[in-house]
Amino acid sequence: MEEPLRIIGDGVGQPDWAPPVELTEKDLVAMYRSLVILRTFDERAVSLQRQGRLGTYALYWGEEATHAGPLHACNDSDWLFPTYRQNSIGVLRGVKAATILAWWRGYGGAHGFYQVREHRVAPICVPIATHLPHAVGLSWAAKKRGDGICALTWLGDGATSEGDFHEAMNFASVYKTPTVLFCVNNQWAISTHVSRQTATPTLVEKCVAYAMPGLRVDGFDVLACWKATKEALDRARAGDGPTFIEAVCYRIGAHGTADDPRLYRDEAESERYRALEPLGRYRAYLQRLGALDDDQASDIHDEAKALIAAAVAEMEALDFPGVEILFDYVYASGRPDPLTEGLDELRSIERRPEVKPLGPQPGASPGDADPLPEGA
Amino acid sequence: MPRLNMVEGLNLALDQAMAQDDRVLVMGEDVARTGGVFRVTAGLLDKYGEERVIDTPLSEAGIVGAAIGMALYGLLPVVEIQFDTFVYPAFEQIVVHAARYAWRTRGEVPASIVIRIPFGGGVRAPELHSDSPEALFVHVPGLKVVCPTTPALARDLLLAAISHPDPVIFMEPKRIYRTGRDEVPEKAPLLLPEADGEATQLLSRARVARPGEDLVMFSYGSTVVSCCEAAQKLQDERGVSARVVDLVSLYPLDVESITGAASECGRAIVVHEAPRTAGLGAEVSSLIHERVMLDLEAPVGRVTGFDVPFPQFANEDDYIPSIDRIAAGAVKVLDF
Which of A94, A335, B23, B182 is least surrounded, with the fewest CB atoms within 10 Å of its CB? Predict the structure, then answer.
């Protein structure tokens, strides 16, 4: 099996390679900033969930390179199709972090859903692999219009077992749509190891059946993720169709805040992978390159903390949603009678005194209410 | 004015929509080169080319999923599901995405797609080519579900569905695809893309298929034709004047027309080919009992398919509500 593409060394045994020539020092730092924002969001979201201020949350600690690398390879007009694992990717496209947090808080409507066309970010997809045909369809439409716009979509290792994955791969390759399917192989689908998803040694070899080019990269290496995606997008924009990328990494954290990985895997393994996590590794690389000094790094971390702290405050200041939210926009053409009747029925019954399902846990000491995440 | 059958009416609608608006495209299995197994899309490939009339792989989730992506980009795809049962692989795409896109984007991006499904039995088709799955879709919030019964209505409804922002499940009763001809005015009743309001109206209205005052039969699709024949039989044999109301819109139901007709006639039955339990008949019957029970002379009756798999075609005439079964169901209500 060929080693995945790697650019960033570990500072010990593995060598550093030069950053891709297309990237300026400013680009390199911008990518660092994105990693920090994603990490800060994720750690904060986990702590908010622990305090009962968010519902179940799907964390991505350690997978940030697979989010930021591909995103930075895109043009601003390209469309992104995230799963719940890339839930905060919109923040890097101008979506309010408060909106994503509110979605995890169980809020809908304007509180929890963002405007997709404004940001070119499709709604966060919860079912597995079902968004892949959408990415294919959208980029196919863009190709028909000659707009030079591509779609980048993420999937996990488990998604390669779903029918929609294969249907999307097939459509993309038959019609040569400008689509990049970026597969984050973190080796675990909740408790199921990738070896139980597929009998193939790699995921990238799936693309052979679709006559689609495939690339395999180190998913902890933001520059490798960038480079593979850039190559795929260049090919797509040139009219040469889709690419499948397998980014090999490891789900260092749990599947979600309701999951306990100790039940099904040896956490010592997870700890070994923790040493490879992309943020620290990239910072060390940039410092070896002389592209990032401590002051700059510390400014970036401060900025991210402030951004997310403001988002948390904004989320918590949102009005508790009213009953109308159940019925709004179910149909773009207006409410059919049964919806109007449902709303009337709800309005006719006095609402119980507002019980916010989520808030600081009873008995929590004031000091617990707003801790800053570790290491952010 | 040309006299068209339903297939030709549908074809005219697609042709007119594609001519009016270059965002409209047609996609499905065998729709381009052969013009569809029922020929509904015949001739469109030559006129509009393969970028807009697309033969797809055998991949219903892929077809509907790609159509959703196209709609997200601003196109107006009309997809054909070749036969009723072939829609099941696309069910997840329809339920979790097509139906929820408007809600999930606060109305910014409804999945403006039309999913055409030839459905129902009576054409001596092989196993799994004759289901009536409409109630499954009626139960999914976010979808509109319609079913035309005449060639002219088929043309008008399909145009309305295409110009409507919400996803429309367009049920085509294949048994009456070619059995009747209508005069279909060539002038399209509405123009893309400004027809939203008008289309919404058209997509939510029931119609009277046969006047009458002693009893009303509610139905949709090919059993509307059977109801009309049963009504004639009742007229001939018992002097009963039976009205037939074609629901046309299965979601939302035209509640006013339904309850109005039930009140006026005082006796009603609901007829459909789909299995009975939790079918449209249950919903129509409940609506009537909830709203106008005191105007009724008898409880609402149902004549439907059975809660069994659609049979092999040797027995399909036993399964599909026949004129005699419908008439018998009506007599039960009349004699209550």
Answer: A94
